[in-house]
Amino acid sequence: MAQIEMKMPTMGESIIECTVLSWLVSEGDKVSADDMILEVATDKIDTEIGSEFNGVVTKFLVQPGDVAAIGSPICIIETQDAVEGAEDSEEEVVKELENGIESVASEVHEPIQQSNSSRFYSPLVMSIAQKEGITMDELEGIKGSGMQGRVTKDDMLAYLRKGRKKSAFNFQKEEFKAGQDTIIEMDRMRMMISDRMVSSKRVAPHVASFVETDMTAVVRWRDKVKDDFFDKYGGKITFTPILIEAVVKAIKAFPMINIQVEVPRIIKKGSINIGMAVATPDGNLIVPVIKNADQYTLAELAIKVNDLAQRARDNKLKPDELTEGTYTISNIGGFGNIAGTPIIMQPQVAIMAFGTIQKKPAVIETPEGDLIGIRQKMIISHSYDHRVVDGSLGGLFVKQVSDNLENFDVNQAI
After folding, report:
1. Which residues span the domain enclosing 358?
2. How many other CB atoms sit within 10 Å of the CB of residue 114?
3. How many CB atoms lie within 10 A of CB 259?
4. Helices 90-108 & 123-132, crossing angle to 10 degrees?
5. Closest by Cα among 401, 218, 196, 163 to 286
6. CA–CA distance from 150 to each of 11, 146, 155, 212 (Å)?
7. DSSP 3-state assignment of 132?
8. Considering the domain boundaries, does residue 400 fall inside one?
9. In this structure, are residues 33 and 53 in contact, taking their beta carbons and an 8 Å threshold?
10. Annotated active-site positions, please?
11. Which residues are in the Peripheral subunit-binding (PSBD) domain (predicted)?
12. At what angle do helices 216-233 and 298-313 cross, to 10 degrees?
């Protein structure tokens, strides 16, 4: 039998600390390796921490609200070769865990639970409610699937996915109601986005270049292969992986766009890690990163894009999936926008936005002469940091992306 200090695990290169949100177990609870025991928040994402050992949690070394450094002790787990009671039934373990959470919740969330409700809500559920601006009255109306009708994390996420009209930053269309002004408190994610965007504009002088590209070949190819792709891989092939592939090829041609600034140094990155902006159901923005994007085939990129986008919307990304980006794209065409000037994700030096694809009359050059035809056109916007990226590089890069799309190989198999 041994007393082992479990430490806060690494969560990505740029994350050095995190805030403890809630314990999901109580002192004295038995845990198995990989059981979720603690929920934390970083400057990028909320996530759950799994136990590294089989044993009994004997002491918490951090409490909700504490800021814990990566690598610092968070709890003590007593381990032994065979944890007594391992033969407990799943139902007993679940019951014990929920009772443990209830004990923690009664201490940590006592101020929040001062309502007319006798219904119990776990710390994790209360944390989601607080972050999403869900009132106690609204929480009371959510049907729970847990023991004794308790609301679980999955119940909360399902409720949010169903299109709940949020009080804050709901970007879905809704009827305007005249009357008194409404004061909306920013949630933690919106505060972080606000701080980062202001900081980026303050640090980097933004310049933008635009190119209109002919997407006709890409559109026709995608229409041709989309059914086969779905049958083969069980998912959709969107335009996003095609756009990412074009950007990756352009970065290889112009590697000085794949840099970061740490004044007075410029760091030329050795990996091509593409961030892709994803709008979440609550109206916020999150940017998962495809690491080593140049090492994927187009089909693999499509699968990766679908996976990351879905998990981003479901708040199931891992912290290290949000770090180490070297270049970012935003597919604003999904919102019907023709162009935009996105703000750079620091410490990167550029970001590209792809507008909606529209049918337009265009001049088509042929050996027999010029003709007027209907083509699928898209505007590409390129924002870049003028401290280190001059107009020539910024303009040539976006033109290269356009050329890559216009010269797309329509004979490739998926």
Report:
1. 191-406
2. 9
3. 19
4. 60
5. 196
6. 31, 5, 9, 53
7. helix
8. yes
9. yes
10. 386, 390
11. 120-160
12. 80
Q: Which residue has the tokens 């507008």?
A: 355
Please check whether residue 160 is in contact with residue 282, taking contact to mean a CB–CB distance below 8 angstroms: yes
Q: What is the mean pLDDT of each run of 10 residues along the chain (414 residues)?
A: 89 77 92 88 78 93 91 92 42 44 38 49 74 73 76 82 55 74 78 87 96 97 95 94 98 98 94 94 85 97 95 85 94 92 95 97 92 96 97 97 97 88
Domain boundary among 87, 108, 129: 108
Rounding to the nearest 10 degrees, give the CA dihedral for residues 405, 309, 312, 190: 40
Token pair of 107 as six digits: 């201490």
Tokens read off for 7:
């430490």
Structure tokens at 394: 């910024």
Q: Which two tokens stand for residue 217?
A: 């070949």
Determine the Cα–Cα distance for residues 28 and 9; give it in Å rounded to an integer: 22
CA distances from 266 to 247, 256, 270, 328, 383 (A): 21, 10, 13, 18, 18
* Within-domain flag for 174: no
Q: Which CATH number covers residue 99?
A: 2.40.50.100
Compute the C-alpha angle 259/264/270, nearest 5°.
25
